């Protein structure tokens, strides 16, 4: 299992707002490894996640998930890949305020056409693994920021994705929680053997992740003559 991006180019916007965000980008992400995607604001981290997650089709290049090119699939097959092979955990968690924790996972699974009855035991087990066994019947608005992020992680993992894409998971939590949450993501990635990519500005994430990919590496230092 791996994710390989080859020659990815993306231009966004029109007219004066046209920006080439990615220009022939190459990157490889290995299974069982959580990679921190770093780089200054505007360097294209979220865009890269959108391309990798089949949410945005690149203007050029290949997105090879286990060797099959997601960028070349029909819209229908891309939608299926999003449902069945990719888990997303985006900034604020985007939980549904009124639903209890276990139903947050099941609601997402039912959008993917899976039965609640079949998945409920797995959802409860997964939430327990994520340290939320005592919060299964809490509503999202009764949870702390870190707990909400763990629910969002559970939701992303329920259907055992090959690829887990995470955008700024620690934006709303303190340093201790940031470290704990990242350790959970890294440990889960190793345990499941999925490919995980985490866009982040947070040094705590960078410190815990298995590796880093820099969107804008600084130029090599010039040797003085
Ligand atoms: N629809 C759009 N039209 C034009 N430009 C866009 C559009 N969406 C994003 N951009 C530009 O593309 C660049 C990359 O954006 P992106 O969100 O991928 O960066 P980022 O590295 O994730 O930034 P941040 O760390 O601030 O979240 C930015 O300069 C942004 O202004």
UniProtKB/TrEMBL annotation:
Q: Name one GO cellular component term.
A: plasma membrane
The terms under GO molecular function for this entry are: ATP binding; ATP hydrolysis activity; transmembrane transporter activity
Q: Tell me the SUPFAM superfamilies matching this sequence.
A: P-loop containing nucleoside triphosphate hydrolases (SSF52540)
InterPro entries this protein is in?
A: AAA+_ATPase, ABC_transporter-like_ATP-bd, ABC_transporter-like_CS, ABC_transpr_LolD-like, P-loop_NTPase
By its UniProt entry, which Pfam families does this protein fall under?
Answer: ABC_tran
Which ranges carry the ABC transporter domain? Answer: 3-225
Q: Where is the signal peptide?
A: none
Keyword annotations for this protein? ATP-binding, Nucleotide-binding
Q: What is this protein called?
A: Putative ABC transport system ATP-binding protein
